[in-house]
Design a protein that fits this description.
Length: 250
């Protein structure tokens, strides 16, 4: 029996796709696929460190896309869920996909196919929720700035929406949980990292005009029309700390 091997990658999506390429190309009996900062030695498997190769990643991406546009979306969205063990589930999913003549005929009663589809839908819902939830504040540098803390790593999925909506303004959306952001400089979107000690309530970056929004919220908030249960349903309290009009209530 061919020995099993655990593939270690850098945690990026391109790194994961490179690991998939290596697994197929070298016909590896894969025991597991793990991020390099979370790797654990298996008792009965060797390990191999995979170095990200964009060309190899592209070949896997194009191979999946040629099989099914729906599948490539499922793979990317499910990967961004950061669910424990999702790499091996995706590896199995891609194997099943590649063994079909047409990706449309995947067995949708198969537990792996169903699971990846469900994960992708959860990430998609979180993406839309964050897009509706983001509230920008104007910095002294005339940059629209917002903090988010999504359940899944949806920031890469949000850039198209905000680039279209705020095409004429510089903006920065920062994921405080994963410690990186996306910045639009009026030309393109790029990923950035910041060194802010208290990014949740960093008052030094907020322009004085932000008080106008707080005053407007208070003046239009009619006490007799408040429905706390419905309000909390649509905007969970865990998100209030990122809303300027809610900070007094947190």
């Amino acid at each position: 029996m061919k020995p099993t091997k655990t593939l270690i990658y850098d945690g990026s999506f391109n790194g994961f796709l490179t690991a998939i390429f290596i697994a197929f190309d070298e016909k590896i009996n894969v025991a597991d696929i793990q991020k390099n900062n979370q790797s654990q030695n298996g008792l009965f498997s060797d390990t191999e460190t995979v170095f990200t190769n964009v060309e190899k990643a592209k070949r896997v991406w194009n191979g999946i896309r040629n099989k099914s546009h729906n599948a490539i979306s499922n793979v990317y969205f499910a990967f961004l869920s950061e669910t424990e063990g999702v790499e091996m589930m995706l590896y199995t999913y891609i194997q099943k996909l590649m063994h079909t003549k047409n990706g449309k005929y995947l067995d949708y009663s198969d537990s792996t196919v169903v699971y990846i589809g469900q994960l992708a839908k959860k990430v998609g819902r979180e993406k839309h929720r964050m897009e509706a939830f983001v509230q920008f504040q104007l910095t002294k540098d005339e940059i629209l700035f917002a903090n988010i803390e999504p359940d899944f790593d949806v920031l890469p999925l949000m850039s198209k929406h905000f680039r279209y909506r705020y095409a004429d303004q510089k903006w920065l959306i920062y994921d405080v949980k994963r410690k990186y952001g996306i910045f639009y400089n009026l030309d393109h979107v790029e990923m950035v990292s910041l060194n802010l000690k208290d990014i949740h309530h960093n008052k030094t970056v907020i322009a004085p005009d932000q008080t106008l929004w707080n005053d407007y919220f208070k003046s239009t908030n009619v006490a007799s029309c408040i429905n706390p249960k419905l309000h909390t349903q649509h905007m969970p309290k865990r998100n209030w700390k990122y809303l300027s009009e809610k900070r007094e209530a947190v």
